[in-house]
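Lay summary. Proteins are chains of building blocks that fold into shapes, and those shapes determine what they do. In this project we predict the shape from the chain. Here is one chain we studied, written as its sequence of building blocks.
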Amino acid sequence: MSQEEQSNVHGTSRREEEAFLEQTLAVIRSNLEVYGEQVERMREEIDDMLDHFHDDNPELINLLENSMTLHDQMKRALERNEKAQNKPYFGRIDFYDEMLEKEESLYIGKGGISIDTTHQAVVDWRAPVANAYYENGLGKCSYVAPGDRKINIDLKLKRTYEIENGKLLDYYDSEVVANDELLTKYLAKNKQAVLGEIIATIQKEQNDIIRKSPYHNIIVQGVAGSGKTTVAMHRISFILYNYQERFKPDDFYIVGSNRILLNYITGVLPDLDVYGIRQMTMEQLFVRLLYEDWDEKKYSIKKSSQTDNLGSVKGTSRWFEDLKEYCDRLEWNSILRESIYLNPKQFVEGLRDGKNGVYDTTIGKKVNPFDLVLLVDGKAVERYILQNPKVSMQSKINMLNDRLIIKIKEEFMGKGIKYTEAERKAILKAYRGRYGDKVWKGSIYALYEDFLNRQIEKGIVVGQGLPTCQMLPTCRMLPAEQNSTGQKLPMGQKLSGKKNTSLGKKRAGTPKQEFDVYDLAALAYIYKRIKETEVISEAHHIVIDEAQDYGMMAYSVLHFCIEACTYTIMGDVSQNIHFGFGLNDWEELRALLLPDKMDSFGILKKSYRNTVEISEFATKILHHGRFSNYPVEPIIRHGNPVRVEQCPSAEEKAAQICREWQESGYDTIAVVCRNQRSADLAAEALGQYIEVMENDLETAVFGNGIMVLPVEYTKGLEFDTVLILDPTREEYPVDDGHARLLYVAATRALHELCVLHTGNLTGLIADPIPEKRDNVIETEEGMSIASSVRSPDKTGTVGQKPAETKIPGTVRKSSTETKEPNIIGKSPYETNALHTVGKMPHATKAPDIGRKTPCESKRIIISTDQSGQSSGEPGRKYDHSGQKQRSPERGIDSAGQTDVPASGANDQYSQYSFGDRKRSSTDRRPAPGTRPAVQRPRAVLASASGPQKEPKVSSLTNLYSAKPAASPSARANTESPHPTPQTKLPGSGGLPAFGDIPPTEKLRPMGHSQIDLSVRWVTKHPDGLCLQSRYGTLKLTPVGSAVIRVSFAKNAQPDSAVHPLIAVDRTEKFWMYKDSGGMVELITDELALQVDKTTGAIRYLSIDQDSGSKKLLLTERRKECRQLEAARTKNSFQTWLFLDFSKEEHLYAFGPDGRTGIPLKGTARYISSQDCGTLPLLLSDKGYGILPATASPVFCCDIPAYGSYLHADSEKQIDYYFICGKRKDSILNAYAYLAGMQ
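And here is the predicted shape, written in a compact code that computers can read:
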């Protein structure tokens, strides 16, 4: 091999660098010519198609859509090359690739520049290999390639370029991305120039956050000027580039604090090759979640008052808990929870008074209880309500109504009493809508008004001087245990059409037509919790900037309302300018959004924005406060001292200073005032001396010129220069809130800061700094990203809130019974007042959760664990206990983690005898006369004897990583029913992830014609037993004495080829079957499968080897136990296996790849994951497991309204392995054996 073939390294001299730059520019010019011609040609073709467009021609519509998509892509490639003419790249890395055994040079730019379809002149900064430029120093290192492949390299050179207008000015070789000299040179430029250099100067701690997986949540604490907004935008660009199959632009929401910030983001995103991202304020997001219930003509949004401490209670997590409890009680009292029976003798068709009809024969007569048929058990309804807290009340009503009608129809088809058609209609009419109407007819606004009134009655002050809500005369159901006259009602009694007097009361503090962000959050929660019947897919990833401005109420509602969504949260608690409303620390939000070990908390402590002089001035302002703050490390860039000047006419002097700044070449200038009224007056006065930009806060756009803004609207923005106009002692008193507010104003400046006043200067600047307080949050040196995993406490549990299992309305008490008076200016939740709502039956007492008040200062130390990794754990105990709790009668904790006692060392095989198995390349051959060693999986299920000390794991894949080789039969059969699954990231390509809740439309099994599964004949084969029916063929294949493969093919013979991920391809030698009248029974030493010849349903029984007695493990549904319907993929089916789980058993699914396992009883969840190369496993505490051998997603449903079943999206046949075992870890061993895990 020649040296040229082994090396692709460019020269490093200036002449060689200039030559390569010219080559790259020539490629760009060629691309511009080609792309320009293609864009023009495509545009003409689209215009021609539009001229001949007919909406009844689907082929033309499809062609048109494809052409427009290609045109947009080509147009963006053209724009990318046009932008690259000025600076085609900014960085370079030279490295030796250890796998390819060759050296390479790669140039890195804001966008990729292609030479042809297979070669690139410049690599996009978002490409995986480019991470080596940002992340690593010189020497041996690695980067992660697509497919999670780790590529080892030896980094030889890292170079950063200064290029302007296509000319090479200079270059720097350094271990870091941009050394202090280069970074300082970039930051010294004006605002617009700095924006153009951001990608070239991304620092390692920023890059860590940008490249975090979008499948997990991240919260970032970043000091002022640390680049939070910039990092968030680059993170969106990175995700869209690297996760195209899973995330599209319309899957993102960007939430900002005001329209000016969002307009600024809108202008920057296209420069990062990002288009079509939806942006909104938090208020607009909650309005979006109200759907049809928001009337823009009737209602409007109002900003929360920064100083309304009395109303700040609405932003707390306790307020959310109160609202949740209110809705829980409403649901509990609204849904009928009594058992419903059918009296077969009630409606009888016949003659009465000479008229033929259907008559109620029970009127005036006693009903014989033995005549009644139970349709719906009241206890089951109560369990359903409590076990599905995220299903809306109306959806529960609809599902219960559907379930009731299904049970009645099943009764009609039974073998007992025969009903006439008229009798059936009469019965259905009598029971239809028994649980309620199909559509909720109440008003979310009326419910919210009632909730506020009840809060006021409890002494909770929610603000003063607000207008009352419009009185609504009726409400369908009263959300309490009393009617309008105060009389106590039975639980669940309807009050349809009755006037709710509590909703008619007018009280101060309840909004009418204007709603702030927390009112809107409450309304969105009520809509989702009470009214919603159709779940609408919202964002899959939400980026929230300036997150500290919103209280926990907003985040709790978002977390509830938008499911299957991850978050990037950016903020700085030192900049919380909303006083009592916002976040003063991150602890509650971390507990809510960072429950997974892969979630993370990051810290950006270096400020790149301000000069040293501005940073020191702003930090002194903060020191007047009594709150904890994160330390700021300014980059060493000096500038002019901060000017603090007194003058008789502030506006005239301000105009003079702004003019001087413009003459000095500064483009973006901000004049900052205390509020909107002051800003309007200042803009009008300044306009007499100098031109100012539009200052309408809803339409103003960030750009070059002089902007006059209230301080709260400067959040997230930065300007070349900032002038703070007349900050008086009245407008900025010395307190925590105003210290943060003025700190925000001061830290907006890149280069120059000036404070103009007329003599009454705020004490935050004029007064000396108080005595030094211990209010700095300390962090370890170099710490940037901290895992959300918290150090165990004495009980060995992590710092999370305990899961509460309680009936709606359970009494909630504080740690003391002493009731303190409500103090003005203090949140009522900071007192020790009793908080009692009324006791419900069967209440389960929840442990008290301690709370710290927002005003308590904290000293938090970010510690590291023994491995040196930052844990993100504050150096003090969490305010809550953090102890996991077990749900009643379940062997599973609140996180879905389970456990069983450890097995003995010799329990590798337990009772299983499998015989030979397929061998992969990684198999270890056993010594002669010994069994192959199968590593016993660590137990993950609950033991009946209680919790043990066995370490908990949630997956087998971290213990068994070997991939089994395909069997000879699988390789020989090209039409295998199990196509090899492709390894994809979680949720990629639109595939559901493990634990996802299936869409509602998938839960209801597909309608079908009559299915005849009755066994017509039975045939024994060497590899099993075949049972033929009109619908298809059922095949039972004993794999081992305790494992039987069950497969069923519609109108065909099941394929014998095993799934590629199944390592066992053999048949148990010792088995027999019996055909006795109405039943066929297949028997091994440990397992018996009995097939009902009339229905085709299977009963699974274990056999005690000592006594020979049989124990029933599981039964299939007697009627139509299997169903296959055509899927979208050719020659494949959607499959349903209907099962009758017993009421007492608990079901679990394993979490693949270390993910937490989940309980399945009474819910519906996907138990498969398409990204980790392992098969799903359903496990029961009755002593069996089911391993579905599928290539498509599988979910388990155990919701009464839909039935109990396993469903696969696209298969050629039903195929699964039934495993039995006395011990749960024996079942796990069998699973590991089948899956070839060693």
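What the prediction tells us: The longest helix spans residues 14-51.
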